[in-house]
Amino acid sequence: MKIVVCIKQVPDTEAEIKWDIPKGTLKRDAMEATITNPFDEFAIEEALLTRENYDGEIVAISMGPEKANDVLRNALALTVNEVHRLTDDAFAGSDTYATAYVLASAIKKIGDVDVVFCGKQSTDGNTGVVGAILASILGFSQLTYVSKIRSIDAGAKKIVVERAIEGGVEVVEAKLPAVVSVIKGINEPRLPNLMGIRKASKIAIPEWNAGDLGVDTGKVGSAGASTKVVEIAVPPPRGAGEILKGEIEDIVNTLTDKLIDLKVIK
Amino acid sequence: MANDVWVYIEHKEGAVSPMSFELLGIGKILASDLGSNVCAFVIGDGVDGIAKEAIAYGASKVFAVEGATYKTFLPDAYSKAASFLLDKYKPEVALFRATSQGTDLAAATAGQLGFGLCTDSIGIKVDGGQVKLTRAAFGGNYTVTVVNEKAKPQIATVRPKSFAMPEKNDANQGEVVKEAFTVADADLHSKVLEFVKAATTVNLVEADIIVAGGRGVGKPEGFDLLKQLADVLGGAVGASRAAVDSGWIPYEHQVGQTGKTVKPKIYIACGISGAIQHLAGMRTSDCIVAINKDPDAPIFKAASFGIVGDYAQVIPKLIEKFKSKLNK
Lengths: 266, 328
Fold this sequence. Notes:
The complex is a heterodimer. Chain A is an alpha/beta fold. Chain A has a single domain (2-224), classed as 3-Layer(aba) Sandwich (Rossmann fold), CATH 3.40.50.620. Chain A is 30% helix and 29% strand. Chain A has eight helices and 15 strands. In chain A, α2 packs across α5 (194-201). In chain A, 50% of the residues are buried. Chain B is built from nine helices and 15 strands. Chain B has two domains: 5-187, HUPs (Rossmann fold), CATH 3.40.50; 209-325, Rossmann fold. Classes of the chains: A alpha/beta, B alpha/beta. Chains A and B meet through α3, α4, β9, β10 and β11 of A and α3, α4, β5, β6 and β7 of B. β14 (227-233) of chain A pairs antiparallel with β7 (142-148) of chain B, so a sheet runs across the interface.
């Protein structure tokens, strides 16, 4: 089985965000503390479990500047078989569609892929749609919010998964190839061991640019993106709250009055 | 009309709730600013009832694709039908709710039409004839405003409960336009084998009131107390990552960066310190109540009302007081 896992380098949640204001994009290279997108850790782990259960090889891809090598090295340390960084000046400023288009081009180049794993969403852009657009572009089955893989049959080209959606769990059978985006809790991501880290540190990360991928540069980056950021703002702080003080009986009396006054409680 | 505002009406095998129609409210405002009409579109197996209700909620026209293939939501069948409709009529904007179905469909449809989309919008306005969408990024620490110049229609998902519900008037008149569009069974990628309803229905995204607990709740039994308060108020129980990771409550209750993003009218945070990862998931709630022993907890900075105290003492008194005031 051929497995691809798409991963992203994101700023550490606590880190200071550095914007390129005129372009409305992040200065990804200027930010020190970066991590593998937390949801993608579940995607990598699911790829590893799939390889353990069904055999096969894993190719991890990441689109991004040189810093993205860190997350690919981490994937190598976790024993994925192969990695590629998708990078080109023309990719900067890509929106959701353009990003999915570049990833799709890489997946086509890898060829004969059975399953693509990705995380439900990134913690920086938060869009949560790249996996679904990727499936749409590739014509693969679109399996989102996946909380469990029940079975994969590469011979019969079939996969059965559980999707955690509003109100319950939907069990879906789909054709392979498929894009599977996973949620937290599908597994417990393992940590790389020391030997893996040491080995990964010495490997040069191969790069694929627009030319290698056959990407039409008019369709990607700031030039090709259909969505454009026109304003970045810090949301207004929430109004200064009121700390209720006094005897607990009085506090509870005041609070229940205030909440009932909102006319929300029926 | 070319600059109409279209709203997707989601349903589950034909079943709708009033929330299915919520975007007709903001849709009508946008259409009025654009000098156009708000229309609904729906895909399913027999949608006359839904179409009628959409008109009552203010849609001037309803576009529908019907067929047995569309009985259950499948992203490939639905997105092919949706992109057929949107490509044929080319409205200015197409809005979907940022639920699992709305997000799946909006993304797949954008993928078919070949453009990007704006997701989880919390603000939409018409500015100089252009639709501008505002969304939160980086856990709500920033908002970014996006335009989608090249796309027609502009596709966007909207965070549930971000805009007022439209008025319902059964006397409203409107037209239903049915379009024939079929997807061959051989072209379907997936089928739903079954739907297993959750033992406790946790629908945080739709809840008007959420009572949530964090590390300060201290033990799984603490959540029983929170549940009692939620039951009295007709709300749902939420949790911080710390509580979920401690195994006190299942993941589907988690609110925050790696959980659900919610926007209830009342959010009661018990023993939650207010880390930015948690705030990311609930800071746009209308009214936030914080109950925490630590007076310096960051949650108080985001709270509309704060109580410095132990939830285990405060909650039982709240339950008692609400019961007597609400005659329950």
